[in-house]
Design a protein that fits this description.
Low-confidence stretches: none
Distance between the termini: 37 Å
Structural class: alpha+beta
Number of strands: 4
Strand order of the largest sheet: 1-2-4-3
Mean pLDDT: 88
Helix content: 40-55%
Shape: globular
C-alpha cells in the first residue's frame, strides 16, 4: 500500500476512535464516523492527501468535523449515476450543514452533525 494512503487510513481510523470517545448519541456517532470516512477518502482521492482531521463537539450534543487537504478546488457532489461524487451526497444527507473554505494552498471541508436531524 502507498505510504500516503496508509497514513490517510490511519488518520481516518484515529478520527473514528476519537468520535467514539466523545460519548455522542448513537445516531450522531455512527453518522459522524461515516462522514469523516467520506471526507477523508475524498481528501485522499481528490485533494492530494489528508493534511489534518479535527473533531470538535458543538452545543446540543453535536459534532463538527473538519478534513484539510492540499487542493484548493472546492468539493461538489457528482451528478446522479456518476462514479465519483456520490460520497458528498451522503455527507449532505447526514449532516445539518457542510461546506468548505480555503486554508493556505489547500482547503478544509467541514460538516456539522446534530442529534435528531
Amino acid at each position: 500500500m502507498d505510504p500516503d494512503a496508509s497514513a490517510g487510513l490511519t488518520s481516518i481510523r484515529q478520527a473514528r476512535a476519537a468520535l467514539r470517545a466523545l460519548g455522542l448519541d448513537d445516531d450522531v456517532a455512527q453518522h459522524a464516523a461515516l462522514v469523516v470516512t467520506e471526507l477523508g477518502t475524498n481528501a485522499m482521492l481528490h485533494g492530494g492527501g489528508i493534511r489534518g482531521i479535527r473533531i470538535a463537539p458543538i452545543p446540543g450534543g453535536g459534532v463538527r468535523l473538519e478534513v484539510e487537504d492540499s487542493s484548493n478546488v472546492p468539493p461538489r457532489p457528482g451528478p446522479s449515476g456518476a462514479m465519483s461524487g456520490r460520497g458528498l451526497v451522503i455527507v449532505e444527507a447526514l449532516t445539518s450543514r457542510w461546506g468548505s473554505q480555503r486554508a493556505g494552498a489547500g482547503k478544509v471541508v467541514w460538516a456539522e452533525l446534530t442529534p435528531g436531524q
